[in-house]
Description:
Number of strands: 9
Mean pLDDT: 82
Shape: globular
Number of helices: 17
Low-confidence stretches: 1-48, 189-206, 209-224
Helix content: 40-55%
Amino acid sequence: MSSRTDGFRESNMHSSGLLFAAALLSVLVARSGGGNITNQGFYSPFAQDGPALKLDQARLAFHNYLTEQVQVFYTSDYCYKCVKQHLVTVKPNNNNASAVVSTKFTLTLQVESRRRNSTLCRWSQIYEEGGHYSVRIQMPSAFTNPICISSVDKRPNNAYLPLLVAALLLAVIALLFVVATYIYRRRRTSKCIQILCCQDPLYSMDNDGARVGETARDTGEAKPSRLLSLDAFRGFALTVMVFVNYGGGGYWFFQHAPWNGLTVADLVMPWFVFIIGTSVVLAFSSMQRRGVGRLQLLRKITWRTVVLMMLGFCFLNYSPRDGPLSWSWLRIPGVLQRLGFTYFVLSLLQTFWGQTQIPERAHQWWNAAQDIFLYWPQWVIIILLETLWLCITFLMPVPNCPTGYLGAGGIGDDGLYPNCTGGAAGYIDRWLFGDNMFRYPTCKEMYLTVQPFDPEGILGTINSIVMGFLGMQAGKIIVFYRRKTLHVLCRYLVWAVILGISAAILSKCTRDGGFIPVNKNLWSLSYVACLGCFSFLLLGGMFFVIDVKGWWHGQPFIYPGMNSIFVYVGHSLLGFYFPFSWEMHFQGSHWEILLQNLWGTALWVLIAYLLYRNKFFLRI
């Protein structure tokens, strides 16, 4: 989430071992080559010169043995229909030149001759971090075309070794924790075990504050409990968010996608929004059953919304350079601002059109889907909001831009729409906020955009509400079918399948070629459907493991999950101070930065645990 522009990556909000394993799989892609480039071994001292390489960089040297000057251009295969960019010019007659290239994505390079007005060589390759490569441009004989011969002068670093070591260490720690917990539980008395196992976690749930009892219909007995899986899910998302905000070990897949597509960092904020929706239903249903009036609920809603927005405006916009409230750099949209407004709308829906009592189940045709039909006013409002998003996105005319444009602008789309970043969404935000918005969007580096674009803008907030409403549906399922675990899990699975298929259709299972690509910057409809699918699966899985079977109690994620505001604001304000970070001395390697980011994340989990042990919970 981007709450500041001085180093925090925008994570529009673990099992760490699983995340690391997924990241490793995502980068084990096939290396490809093409054109008329061949590979031969030869030594080039030129490639060893130059300053030290940084993360995600390799050095590429070109040796021109032709009698004509050549120019080298490149494009990133991740950059959709991007205009080729000049890399280096190499003079004739055994001259050479070198350049630093990115190792994040596959690069397509081509060597061109102005005199011949043609492309001499063209190939695609993923260059690996820290490697030194050479390309020799030569003419084999007078009767053939020029060829390019590639070689490796210095072997690249094993960039993923630190990640593998960290994953193994985390797996060992998790295994030791499981074994220690098992031994401890075995030594407890049978009476304590019986009491722990016989609690009904679905009987009453309020994850929006202190533990609140819910009166059972048959006995009138209050049985306070929490839905621990929801706290664990919140803490899991928060832990991932802290890690990626600290830098994610310097790995590109722990940073946001340049434009379309998904990375680990793109997952966390929709999870938070989904959790907000679920918590609203559980908490407000409990309060309404206890007789809390609408006026009191409205005061509570308004207070929380104002506090969240003020936190976003003041604290997370702070800059020591200009002071806490300088309008010259103040960012009006933001993560907490969007979360606060989304919470406000969802709470209003539940306050005015929620069900205070679950009706008796009569034999009616819609009984199997009463968690949908009984909330038809909410569905009407959400459908109208989504229709508004679709109409504005695809029908609103934007000056000098094609109607319905969803691209990044800049050099993308053949460079035809350089100032159209974000289409209607970007145009509306720039008109309303001017420069008081996010100035370093994720597309800036790759697409060379010049327009500011804020991923927490006005239009995307509509789909944020839709995402939260999906979370509300998860909460309604728990409320309606709390004594029927199989019904809850089956409905979660059905929703995940429906949303997953919808996302596949909208995106055509491609990154850039779908009707509506999966795009976190725009919070596109396919992005909401895709992350809704993931959210139902994750919450359903944690619900089964934690609340139903009791195999796991959510540690350590449950601790930051119960103090999420404290951890989020704390890590945002103190992230670049010791002991959470320090001045690094080995910036060309992932070892130190990964250690620092894991250390900072672990410290916040430890702080949350200590607060939990002392029963301190920061609530708004």
